[in-house]
Structure formats: C-alpha cells, structure tokens
Amino acid sequence: MQTRKGRYLMSRSAKTVVERLPTGVKGFDELIEGGIPRGFFVAVVGEPGTGKTVFCLHYAGEGVREGDRVIYVTTEESRESILRQASQFNIPLEEAVEEGKAIVIDALMREREDPWSLRELTVEELVSKVIEAKKKLGYGRTRLVVDSMSAFWLDKPAMARKMSYFVKRVLYKWDVTALLVSQFAITTLTAFGFGLEHVADGIIRFKKVVSKGIIRRFVLVEKMRQTNHDLSAHEIIIRPGEGMRVISPSAYRIEDVRMPREVARKILEAKEREKGSLGIEEDDLWH
Q: In this structure, is residue 8 part of a structural domain?
C-alpha cells in the first residue's frame, strides 16, 4: 500500500509494517523496496564530486512534497549555496524555508546574528540546534540531512564512532529519518567516517571513475536493515533542471566501486595512530 505520506510494505514472516520514505531520486527507490525505513540513520559516503549532496537535496525536496518537516545542516557550503544548488535541480527547498516548512542550519558561516547557525562545530551544538529546529517546525515526521558529519571530527577522527553514536541515540527519540554524509578523499584520509558506518542503519556509497576521459558516477547500497536491497552498483547521471537519476546496473564489480583496499588500510592505520595519540582504547569510544 502506498500513501502520500510514504510507502508501507508488509513483511510476510513477521507481518510487520515498514514505513518507507521515498528519496525522490528517479530509479533509486526501487533498489531499496520503495524508500528508507522511517527512523533510520543512513550513512551517505564517498569522494567529493560523486553526487552525495545532490542525493541529499532530492531527499529533502521529496520531504517537502510529502509534507514532512525538513532540517538540512550544511557544514561545507553556506546556506545560500545549498539553496541555490537546490533551485538548479528544481528542488523546492528555498520555497519551503520561506514558508516555514524547512530549516537550513548553516554550520559554515557561523554568524552570531543568525538564529539557524552553529556557534561551535561540536556534535552537542549540532544536536541542540536540530532539536530546536524540530520544535520550531512542529510535530510530525521529520527528514534530517547533515552534510557532512566529517566536519565534526576532522581534528579527532578516532572519536567519530562515539560522536555518531551520540547523535543517533539522542535524535532517534525525535522522529527523524536522517542522511548523514561522510566525506572521503585520498588527501584527507582521516576525515572518512569509519565510525559513522558502524552505527548506521544503512550505507549508500557513491563512487566516480574516469573511463575514456569521461567521469562516470555510480551508487551502491551496501547496507539497509529491514530491506531486501539491490546488491549491484548502478550508474547515475546528474543533469541541470532534473538532478540525479539512476540509469542502469553497472558492469563494474563491487570491488571497483568500493573503497580501494590500499586506501582502507591507510585509513585504519590513521585511526590507530590517532587512538594512540589520544591515549584511548576501542572500548572507550562507547563510554
């Protein structure tokens, strides 16, 4: 059964209803049985320029169309930049902000006179401001985007798991379904959200490759609890006025679109070095 307020699927074995939030990306929801389960915290990971922000903008825009409350936290672009980018893809985020149906929290500019700006780049400030925005928007199903979480642990990557767990534990009580973005780049290995993926209910990975001199982008659903999700990498395209669209399964292997093994090894080494410098053990990350 499908309603305006999301999609509902019945599990034959448990006979439980799973409410799913469509992402608004053409061709993607079919990969995850109709959408993201309500209340999930999903990691959106990948290199810069792979489509993570565009994916999140579609998710926010679809929330506006479905009558959801929408909270978008931007840490690496200004509010104006995010709204301008949304308009380029005909995503009605700016209109929703003007009508009081959405709030964009600017964690980049941090202007003191701006009520929807983070004063400090900490997860405690993030959670506090998201709850304030939720109260302002009112009761009801809420979509949250944090783009990106990596900014909160750039100088302390070993704490990523603890920070991610804190955000999920507190905000889960506020009826939010969240996309939490994690950046990855060869030159900033320690910014990758190895902790975020551990606590996430789902992992959506974006990847780009250069083929015959042309950049091609791919998406892979690596994990989605309570979902019989597609296991193939799919090619995506991004066009002005339309945004993102899944066009076809890819001939690339999973190994081709996952993080390179050598990069993964370097990330783990960086994590161990950071833990040593902080003088903490793995178990300490949970306390």
A: no
- With 0-12 / 13-18 / 19 or more C-beta atoms within 10 angstroms meaning exposed / middle / buried, residue 184 is buried
What is the C-alpha separation between 243 and 27, in angstroms, rounded?
12
pLDDT tops 50 at residue 220: yes
Within a domain: residue 158? yes
- Is 232 within a domain? yes
Query: Which pTM was predicted?
Result: 0.84
State how many domains the chain has: 1
Query: First vs last Cα of the chain: how many Å apart?
Result: 42
Residue 190 scores a pLDDT above 50? no
Q: Using an 8 Å Cβ cutoff, are 78 and 48 in contact? A: no
Q: Is 287 within the bounds of a domain?
A: no
Average pLDDT of the chain to the nearest whole number: 85
- Show the domain range for 176: 21-280
For strands 102-106 and 69-74, give the pairing.
Answer: parallel
